[in-house]
Design goal:
This protein is of the alpha+beta class. It is built from seven helices and five strands; from the N terminus they run H-H-H-E-E-H-E-H-E-H-H-E.
Length: 173
């Protein structure tokens, strides 16, 4: 589970605002692993997690029946196609990344509101083995503008070190 150092009653409204901003610009990522029901229920679940809970609650909610597919298609190494089970970690990995993305964007909005222009990268979730590229940015201060350029648009967020799957890093004031 993540330890979001600045997830509190002061920052939660800004996280919700970041979600609303993303929704209004069509920058809410819907997993290809969602069922139709999952696509309908994800945004309200994300908002509820931001308002009252955390990424763990979101993951548990996404594990509810009929939210995520049981099977998915995949290409084989030799150019073929196969059907396989969706990994049992899919909901947690998705929830971690997307909740962290909006926590960070909300923290950016909060920081700008109180006159802070950069945030510090830290390890918010312990892992058995740390990636060298993640370790190399811990302690760095990153400008709000740089963070937003990485995370505001769904497509650019996929290449951001800040929300790389299973990295366990986030930002704090």
């Amino acid at each position: 589970m993540f330890s979001f150092e600045n997830l509190n009653e002061d920052t939660r409204p800004y996280i919700l605002q970041a979600i609303e901003n993303a929704h209004s610009t069509d920058n809410i990522y819907l997993s290809a692993r969602f069922t139709e029901k999952g696509k309908e229920e994800y945004l309200p679940l994300l908002k509820e997690a931001a308002k009252n809970h955390n990424e763990h609650w979101l993951a548990c909610s996404l594990e509810s029946p009929d939210i995520m597919k049981d099977l998915e298609g995949a290409n084989t190494p030799f150019g073929g196609y196969t059907v396989k089970h969706v990994p049992n970690t899919a909901a947690q990995t998705f929830a971690d990344g997307q909740f962290n993305r909006f926590y960070i964007l909300g923290l950016c909005l909060y920081a700008k509101n109180v006159g802070i222009d950069s945030l510090e990268v830290y390890r918010a979730k312990e892992s058995v083995s740390h990636r060298p590229q993640s370790d190399s940015i811990i302690g760095n201060k990153i400008s709000i503008e740089n963070i937003e350029s990485q995370l505001l648009e769904t497509k650019s967020s996929f290449s951001s070190e800040l929300v790389e799957p299973n990295s366990g890093i986030s930002v704090k004031l």
